[in-house]
Amino acid sequence: MPNWLLPEYIQDMLPDEAWRVERMRAQFLDLMRGHGYQLVAPPLLEYAESLLLDDSRDVDLRTFKLVDQLSGRTLALRADITPQVARIDAHLLNRQGVARLCYAGSVLHTQPVGLTRSGWQSSAPAPPDSTRRRSC
């Protein structure tokens, strides 16, 4: 077995696709900036208890976990960025009123979603008084 094989349902993104995805990401972020959203970029890796706040068994099953060699605590690779953005909004920004935040980043799942276990998630939740949510 060659050393360069990737895990099942994990793929390299080759140049044409990588550029296409990057153009879509840039267009999304430009659109969100034009609508007054601010970009946040949470880390790919966090303590598991921070990422798995809502006690959702589904999210727990989709999340890769590992042991931090420095602290011995359980770390998790995000399967969903939304809880991280909620954490940033609630605990780090300390703003009054509605925060207009958007994000675009990689996620990783323990089981394939379609043909892959890795992907991108981007969103800009609409303010609470709106009935629409922007997502791509």
CATH architecture group name: 2-Layer Sandwich
Main sheet summary: 4 strands, mixed
In terms of structural class, how would the helical and strand content be classed? alpha+beta
> Which outline best applies?
globular
* Overall helicity: 25-40%
| Average pLDDT level | 88
Number of strands: 7
Sheet-strand content, in percent, reads 25-35%
Query: What's the name of the CATH homologous superfamily?
Result: Bira Bifunctional Protein, Domain 2
CATH class: Alpha Beta
List unreliable stretches of 5+ residues. Answer: 130-136
CATH topology: BirA Bifunctional Protein, domain 2
Order of helices and strands: HEEHHEEHEEE
Q: What's the number of domains?
A: 1
Q: Gap between N and C termini, in Å? A: 38 Å
Explain how this protein is built.
It is a single chain. It contains 4 helices and 7 strands, in the order αββααββαβββ. It has one domain: Bira Bifunctional Protein, Domain 2 (BirA Bifunctional Protein, domain 2), CATH 3.30.930.10. By secondary structure, the chain is α+β, with helices and mostly antiparallel strands. It has helices at residues 15-34, 48-51, 57-62, 82-92; strands at residues 38-39, 45-47, 64-67, 74-77, 101-113, 116-124, 134-135. It is globular, with a radius of gyration of 17 Å.
